[in-house]
Amino acid sequence: MNHNQLTQPFDGTWERLFQVAVNGAEYDSRERQPHPKCLKGTRVDLLNHIYRLLDSRQKNNLIWLHGTAGVGKSAVAFTVAERMRGLKVREETNVEKRLAGTFFFSRKHTKRRTTGYFFATLAYQLAINFPSVRKDVNSAILENPALLDPDKSLRDQMEALFLKPLQKLQFRLRECPPLVFVVDALDECIHESLDEFTSNSELADLISLLGQALLDPDLPAINILVSSRSEEHIRKAMHAEEMGPIAYEIPVKISGKGVAVTISLDGADVDNDIYIFLRHSFRDLESRHADFPQPSKDQLARLASRAGRRFIVASTMMKFIDDKNHDPCDRLQLMLELTSELLPGTEVHKLYDCILSTCADPSADVTNFDTSWPWPGKGCRDGTHAATVYHGYP
Fold this sequence. Notes:
Elements: H1 3-6, H2 11-20, H3 44-55, E1 61-66, H4 73-85, E2 99-104, H5 118-129, H6 134-143, H7 154-167, E3 179-184, H8 196-214, E4 222-228, H9 232-238, E5 247-250, E6 252-256, E7 259-263, H10 270-288, H11 297-306, H12 311-321, H13 328-340, H14 348-357, H15 362-365, E8 369-373, E9 387-390
Parallel strand pairs: 1-4, 1-5, 2-3, 3-4
Antiparallel strand pairs: 6-7, 8-9
């Protein structure tokens, strides 16, 4: 059912909701291209663990996936959302999918770095996926048009645009697998006009309200995956006493066959995942440059180990090598020379220094980079620093 079919009989309210909803915050929006996602054969244990949690109907969960910059949180969030989008709530339906809504925060975009549009965006996606609740969403807006004001009480928005519409689905979905919401990059919720303390408080309120919603006994089975960096104000909100019954944290230690295993974004298995990513990337490069010599297994292993278990570093290596302005064969040899002088996984910042030192015009090369990696060279919002690194890591 398309947008025009959904506008009757509430033309005005639905149109206003459509205008307020942030389409760029959806996991597969054009605004987010290129979409980072997990390469097939990587993140297997982590993804399977998350899928098992999302499939559980025992209780509603708020699953917090956290890690440092560049370990691939957004790629995991996208991959999970994509899988849930492909799963039906019931076999007999073609519209209703398990993915009920997504919101990918971004400090670069005004409407994606605040909570003000969060519940309106999820309400719009929910009504698209479940047309049966659009009347309830429209009625709530008719009754209180201020709900679409980004400065409106976050609690009022949650109750009217999120909680009540979901309550309407409880009976219909009582025997169905859980609905799933995916929220990425909570730490990028930084309201430009607010000081850091107020922004952190706003985000803590959002986490608390999501927790309160999941504890409501009149909801259908719902699980929410959220990802962020391991920042203290987020950790404090997730560890609040009232979150205890529903909060689930990754990294987590699990036991299997008598052995304790840690499921995380940067565990020992990530070295092999990065090896797979590099091998795939070099094969793709060879398909476009027939004379490109594939690195040996030992060379691949060396590059993978120097990435420090961060996919963003491995991606930067490939973007450096696969640069249209340079011969990829020469760039591979230069990268092998640069990494041969570094210790495995411990001198990532030196690797960036080395890469930038090879640029004939660093200021021009920086146009292809993103400011999301901490290093001692470029200031960023939280007092740390950010390196200029290439877009598109998995």
